[in-house]
Design a protein that fits this description.
With about 575 residues, the protein is α+β, with helices and mostly antiparallel strands. About 55% of the residues lie in helices and about 10% in strands. The chain contains 18 helices and eleven strands. The strands form three sheets. A five-stranded mixed barrel has the order 4-5-9-7-6. Strands 1-2 form a two-stranded antiparallel ribbon. It starts with 18 loop residues before the first helix and ends with a helix. The model has no long low-confidence stretch (mean pLDDT about 95).
Length: about 575
């Protein structure tokens, strides 16, 4: 008897097969704007389904290594990465995954919605990029920071064009050196010190504990200007060249040698994101360029970068959820159980349909954050800025948690094969687990949401959006409208209560629950907005999302019956 081998077809084309993505672009860009983006998106989707999928597998199979010394004993601290990683690097530049929202022709075509197109690119590129989406996010954040008017024009002109180049031979990425072992997310405990040099540059000394994209050409590091005092507000962002070729302190050194004063202690052995080089890095009088005036408290400037990387984190979560769903659906269509295709099982269809509802909600939440970011950057829209203040942490924390629970279900949907490393399926769960951690854990972001509500009245624009969505939902479904209205009323009352006594133990202990309820209600509103525009899938997803996350009802039967519309 011949040995059975399970056929595993590839998932559907990530652009052509994603109806929600395409209708979202049609609504936000208009028919002409979407038409202008289709070629770019189709080209990237074709690359993802071909060479980038292979590059992703190669980079995962050949994780980075650190070579500390050359054959003659010289310290070189060289991070060696795979051919697949380099292919991902080139593709990110060629497809303008970082550059697009900064390119004059893109802004001329799409205006503020260039960020919407970028989100679509990330949605396609990220899930099978071997987590090159991480240096992409940090490069984008660094570019946004360098674009601020308070940054010296000489520094901007030297580095920004490289970050946003679409030429793979020119383009660079950036690291983000903030975390220190004694503080973690508590930046107020940062001990890295910056001291001015006579030439206008600075010298940094300290230890950074979690430095992703350790192979990048530069990093944005936080340091405490000497004599500035304690706390986090006085920290200032600095640009640190990673290699000798970009450091004026390097003399008679190989261009790819580490910049003087930069030491790579070791690479991290992580649960996931294994293709991504993450290091512990020491700084000793390392050359650095201030990004803004270090005499002016700089944490607010640094948050320009953090907001960008948080919305990228949301995009990575939503994109991974959609791609995992596509793989699980493709497998279910060919896997036979109990005499029929797994995809015909009502129970399995209900499982996949529920996951599709979560994926639709995550996509809308991430997409909304990018749309707001574009309006802030291009139009200096104060209403968008006020809403983004709370949407960025909400989108990041909610999608990060959804990504982990969804990834666990995707692994389970493959049965034993989902637990075998060489199928590639376990990576979905290993890589998803970082998403609630990077750029602030769920609790850290929940406290940030609480600060935004109580210090900046950030609840007002969110509650206004919920109220408007209630009116939009009424013609679609009175039950949906009533559900959202009840949630909005409850949230309004809660915000009033927490604002009255924001430091109470009751308020602090409930911050996570409040943040998640805000995110779930906002997601309902966003799906309603898209449904009111005329999208049938969004209308169904809005009803089921509200039942699942606002009313806490079982949606299995409807998820089973409507699976083909949901995904």
């Amino acid at each position: 008897m011949s040995r059975f081998v399970q056929p595993v077809p590839p998932p559907v084309d990530p652009y052509a097969g994603d109806g929600l993505l395409r209708s979202w672009l049609e609504r936000h860009l208009g028919p002409a704007g979407h038409a202008a983006a289709k070629g770019r998106l189709a080209d990237l989707a074709a690359d993802v389904a071909g060479p980038l999928r292979a590059a992703h597998a190669d980079a995962e199979a050949h994780p980075p290594t650190l070579v500390r010394y050359d054959p003659w004993g010289a310290r070189v601290d060289r991070v060696e990465t795979s051919a697949g990683w380099q292919t991902q690097r080139a593709a990110a530049a060629r497809h303008a995954v970082v550059a697009l929202p900064y390119l004059p022709d893109a802004r001329g075509t799409w205006g503020a919605a260039a960020r919407v197109v970028q989100h679509a690119l990330l949605h396609l590129y990220g899930p099978e990029s071997a987590t090159f989406s991480c240096p992409v996010a940090m490069a984008d954040g660094a570019a946004a920071l360098l674009s601020l008017p308070e940054v010296d024009s000489g520094v901007r002109d030297a580095w920004l064009p490289r970050l946003i180049s679409t030429d793979p031979d020119v383009a660079i990425t950036s690291g983000q050196w903030m975390t220190e072992s004694q503080g973690g997310s508590d930046l107020g405990r940062s001990s890295t010190i910056g001291r001015p040099a006579v030439d206008g540059s600075w010298r940094l000394t300290g230890e950074k504990w979690f430095c992703s994209a350790a192979d990048a050409a530069m990093a944005v590091a936080l340091a405490r200007p000497d004599g500035s005092g304690r706390g986090s507000r006085v920290l200032a962002p600095f640009l640190v060249p990673r290699y000798a070729v970009d450091s004026p302190l390097a003399h008679a050194m190989a261009p790819d040698a580490p910049a003087p004063g930069v030491t790579v202690h070791r690479l991290k052995d992580k649960l996931g994101t294994r293709a991504l080089p993450t290091a512990e890095i020491g700084l000793h009088d390392a050359y650095a360029l201030p990004l803004g005036d270090p005499a002016v408290p700089g944490l607010v400037r640094a948050m320009t970068l953090v907001v960008v990387t948080r919305v990228h984190n949301a995009a990575a979560a939503a994109g991974g959820m959609r791609r995992g769903l596509a793989y699980a659906r493709a497998y279910a269509d060919v896997r036979h159980v109990a005499g029929g295709a797994l995809s015909s099982s009502p129970l399995h269809r209900a499982t996949l349909g529920t996951l599709a509802v979560d994926a639709a909600g995550a996509f809308a939440l991430a997409g909304h954050a990018f749309a707001l970011l574009g309006r802030v950057e291009v139009g200096a829209d104060p209403e968008a800025a006020a809403e983004l203040r709370i949407v960025a942490p909400l989108a990041k924390l909610a999608t990060g948690r959804l990504a982990v629970s969804s990834a666990s279900e995707y692994v389970e949907s493959f049965g034993g094969a989902g637990y075998v490393e060489d199928t590639g399926v376990p990576r979905l769960l290993r890589d998803a687990q970082v998403l609630p951690i990077w750029e602030g854990t769920t609790n850290v972001l929940s406290l940030d949401v609480l600060r935004a509500l109580t210090r900046e009245d950030a609840g007002a624009p969110l509650l206004a959006r919920l109220a408007a969505a209630v009116d939009l939902a009424r013609p679609l479904s009175p039950v949906l409208a009533d559900t959202l209205a009840a949630a909005a009323t409850q949230l309004g009352d809660t915000i009033t209560s927490v604002t009255a006594d924001p430091g109470s133990s009751t308020v602090l202990a409930g911050a996570r629950g409040l943040a998640l309820r805000l995110a779930y209600a906002l997601t309902t509103a966003l799906l309603v907005e898209h449904a009111a525009w005329g999208d049938e899938q969004a209308a169904l997803a809005a009803r089921l999302w509200a039942r699942r996350w606002l009313r806490h009802e079982e949606i299995a039967e409807d998820a089973h019956h409507h699976l083909d519309l949901l995904c």
